[in-house]
Design brief:
single chain, alpha/beta, Rossmann fold, nine-stranded mixed beta sheet, 26% strand
């Protein structure tokens, strides 16, 4: 067994690749036979419909096209679906499952099957609105799995993301942090075992939702045997073509798809000790 690395080409053009020195780690090869990895990208909106996942009669939504293109350039297949029935089928064929969802995007049986698959070792990647799914007064099993729940958001603004796990895949070249103009989510119900990768700096932010200590914005954790990665970025089309966002997402995917390893020891108490302090 050996691993082959594919250096991402540079450029910030539409559907472009990262300008930072991240290396995509491809699937392991055995002898001369390469395994084609497969990612399921589920984008059903049962609540607010973000423009990047709205198909509007088109074959694929904007973010779906971007992710399919990234997969093609990095030798993994992306299967896009907004049909809950996909979870009635064979989930074993996918190396990871990514969600950009809202509301109760799956019927209860489909959600149970998803959570059981993750517990048994299937990897999960949540993007932006994925934390705005299956919200309840308590802590829903899905929210417990993903590691945090969307609370609210204020006006879009430029914010500093502080890198607190520089060795995690996708963080190379980002230094101590970067700035991004986004619709920033405020969260609640953080899991105590989060390995925080990016911290949202709240000092100077406009809006009541952000008058709180810095809190996790991108993280990883284990759910049973399954790897779970989440990033709050991804609201607008220009974010999806941002080299920085693509680098962070590809790093999370590489880890989730077992192409790269990382130390995901819980660090939320150390790097964001006031994470669960917020004002309703």
């Amino acid at each position: 067994m050996k691993r082959r690395e594919m250096l991402l080409t540079t450029g910030a053009a539409m559907l472009g690749m990262s300008a930072f020195p991240m290396k995509w780690v491809a699937a392991a090869e055995k002898e001369n036979e390469k395994k084609k990895q497969k990612l399921l990208y589920f984008t059903r909106s049962a609540g607010f419909v973000h423009s990047v996942v709205e198909r509007g009669g088109k074959d694929l939504a904007y973010s779906e096209k971007v992710l399919v293109d990234l997969g093609a350039k990095n030798d993994f297949e992306v299967v896009c679906s907004q049909d809950p029935k996909v979870f009635e089928g064979d989930l074993d064929q996918y190396d990871a499952i990514a969600f950009y969802t809202s509301g109760n995007a799956l019927p209860e049986e489909g959600k149970k099957k998803l959570l059981a698959a993750i517990e048994a070792g299937k990897s999960f990647v949540g993007i932006h609105a994925a934390t705005d799914s299956f919200r309840t007064k308590g802590i829903d099993p899905y929210i417990a799995m993903i590691g945090g729940e969307f609370l609210t958001h204020g006006a879009q603004q430029k914010v500093t993301m502080k890198v607190v796990s520089p060795k995690f895949p996708g963080m190379a070249g980002l230094g101590n942090g970067f700035q991004m103009h986004e619709e920033w989510y405020a969260f609640q119900k953080f899991a105590p075992d989060l390995h925080v990768i990016l911290v949202q700096e709240t000092s100077g932010m406009n809006g009541q939702a952000y008058q709180r200590p810095p809190y996790p914005a991108t993280w990883a954790r284990m759910q049973g045997k399954g790897r779970v990665f989440y990033t709050s970025m991804g609201h607008r089309e220009d974010v999806w073509t941002s080299p920085t966002f693509q680098q962070v997402l590809l790093g999370g995917l590489a880890w989730a798809m077992h192409n790269a390893d990382a130390d995901v020891t819980p660090n939320i108490a150390q790097v964001t000790p006031g994470a669960n302090q917020f004002k309703k």
